[in-house]
Amino acid sequence: MLRPRRSDERGTITVLLAISLLSLLGLTGLIIDGSRAYADHRAVQNAADAAALAGAGALNQILFDNTGQEGAVHDAVVASLAANHVNGTPDCRLVDEAGTDLGACPSTATGAGLPATVAGVSVRARDSQSGSFIKAVGISGFSASASATAQIEALRSGSSPFMICGLDAVHHGFDPPLLLPSGSSWIINPAAVGQTYDLHGPQVPDCGAGSNSFKGLTDGSAAVTVPGWWPAGTGVQAGPVRNVVARGDACTTTDGFDNWTGCTIIVPMCVDGQGSGTSTQLYCVRFGLFRVSQSHQNAHEAVFLGAGMVRDGQGGHRPVANEARLIKLSQ
């Protein structure tokens, strides 16, 4: 009877041990590198979000601030991804209000301009990382990709201690009027930008409401959407500011009346009025930015700044020139 040699047994054990070690190494690689791959995917998604917002910020400057060239959108996206250590070549696309692809972001200033309906930027980011333990099973590394879209939208909801009549003096407003009729809508009057208006006081125009108690105040109880009817407040003390402008001179008080001279606030602009006393309402259609020039408990004057960015609030639809707006992720 033949008996197996000890050397054969040792060889078999060595092979089994090697297979076991390789399997263990592969399993370890899947756990460790799999965790790295998941973390990288989250990082790439965050980077794509930041890049889309950066691109939309550059787009905002081109469309509404008249600064920058067409290539600034692409450059902003690339710079943002590089700052977040994403190493793949990005895909930067311009989109309209509905998110429809309008073509690639220009990488240089072509002079051709941007599509007339552009309202946002879509980014697809890609990143690759070298594997560690998984190389033992023949996998060299892993990659991750993520997409994000950011759009510029008109501010549609917010809260403000003030509201102002946008009509002309003939219609119980101001000269020059803040708003001009345009078909069935209203646009901001460019001639009003830079002018000083009474936001709050005993004789503030009420858009024809016919109320002796209207002083330019909202009731301040909740955020209201434009277009829509805003209830007026009574008394002389202005309420808190909850909708913060995305700039260093924003009015940020949340404790009722304060000295706001020199700070900027978002104010709804209105085109109709109704009611009287505590039931007075104004129909407001746009938000505008105002820098407070004089601030007292019983009266506030402010310079109309027209357009500007805000940090929060609800948006909707592509903004028009000189309209308060925000940039937000839509996907």
Kindly list the characteristics that best describe this protein.
single chain; 331 residues; alpha+beta; 22% helix; elongated
Itemize the secondary structure elements and their pairings.
Layout: H1 6-64, H2 71-83, E1 91-96, E2 101-104, E3 118-130, E4 141-158, E5 164-165, E6 179-182, E7 185-188, E8 196-200, E9 224-225, E10 228-231, E11 264-274, E12 281-295, E13 300-306, E14 308-309, E15 314-315, E16 324-329
Parallel strand pairs: 5-11, 14-16
Antiparallel strand pairs: 1-2, 1-3, 3-4, 4-9, 4-15, 4-16, 6-7, 8-13, 10-12, 11-12, 12-13
Helix pairs in contact: 1-2
Question: Can you tell me about this structure?
Answer:
The protein has 331 residues and is α+β, with helices and mostly antiparallel strands. Helices cover 22% and strands 32% of the residues.
Biggest sheet descriptor: 8 strands, mixed
Q: Strand percentage, roughly?
A: 25-35%
Number of domains: 2
What structural class should be given to the helix and strand makeup? alpha+beta
What's the total count of β strands? 16
Outline the low-pLDDT stretches.
none
Q: Which series of helices and strands comes N to C?
A: HHEEEEEEEEEEEEEEEE
Instruction: Label the overall shape.
Output: elongated
Radius of gyration: 30 Å
Number of continuous helical runs: 2
Q: How far do the termini sit from each other?
A: 75 Å
